[in-house]
Specification:
mainly alpha, two-stranded antiparallel ribbon, globular, binds zinc ion
Length: about 220
């Protein structure tokens, strides 16, 4: 799943207006931000198998550190704890931890059975929504549109940047998503790691958008 995770991050602003959008995105996409680092360092593995699902040609052969449920719960606790040490907000820390886990749950819906519960167990899970292009686009598109709607209702722009930086973010994400859906499969696995690393750029971008928007219901900003 791709833009669905971004949708969840945007939606969470409604629940925790004091948390910056960049932080919400870092939590909701944490596993996929970690994954390319593990890919380029050779700690996790992926293969390209065109047609393995209708939507996604990647065979996630090994990703126990970024995508096994047990490790994910560990990352969620670590993320929530780090935020708590910094901001002393139990509610926001809890929401951020849930966002980290939400990634795995949403991946479970779309992936073919390739997600492990325990890092070293051979059993793999996945409900396989990626076997249908229309169902994938419907579910992920709905999550994204809902997220954008909730973020818009939770914030007001302070200046013009707060408006166009957000819409550009939405358009670029939509463009990358469409290219992934309808473009050719990646030529080799090295490119996957570096391309996925580039998605880190959306984190500072999200902070930038948020700095130019005022969160409603947040007296601290
Ligand atoms: Zn993922």
């Amino acid at each position: 799943m791709f833009i669905g995770h971004f949708g969840v991050a945007l939606a969470a602003k409604k629940l925790t207006p004091s948390v910056r959008l960049g932080t919400l995105l870092l939590a909701a996409q944490f596993l996929d931000f970690l994954w390319p680092i593990l890919l380029v360092t050779g700690l996790e593995k992926v293969a390209i198998v065109p047609g393995i699902t209708v939507v996604n040609p990647l065979d996630f052969t090994s990703y126990p550190i970024s995508h096994s449920l047990l490790a994910v719960i560990g990352w969620a606790l670590l993320f929530g704890f780090a935020y708590y040490m910094w901001h002393r907000s139990p509610k926001c820390s809890f929401v951020l931890g849930i966002l980290v886990v939400s990634h795995w749950v949403l991946d479970l819906i779309v992936h073919r059975p390739d997600l492990p519960i325990m890092p070293n167990s051979p059993a793999r899970y996945g409900l396989g929504l990626w076997n249908s292009l229309s169902a994938t686009v419907a579910v992920e598109g709905a999550l994204f549109v809902l997220g954008v709607g909730l973020y818009l209702s939770a914030t007001r722009t302070r200046d013009r940047i707060g408006n166009w930086a957000l819409w550009l973010f939405i358009i670029v994400l939509g463009g990358i998503y469409a290219a992934n859906l309808f473009g050719p499969p990646p030529p080799d696995t090295k490119i996957i790691g570096w391309a996925a690393l580039a998605l880190w750029l959306f984190v500072p971008w999200a902070y930038w958008i948020d700095r130019h928007r005022r969160a409603l219901g947040d007296s601290s900003r």
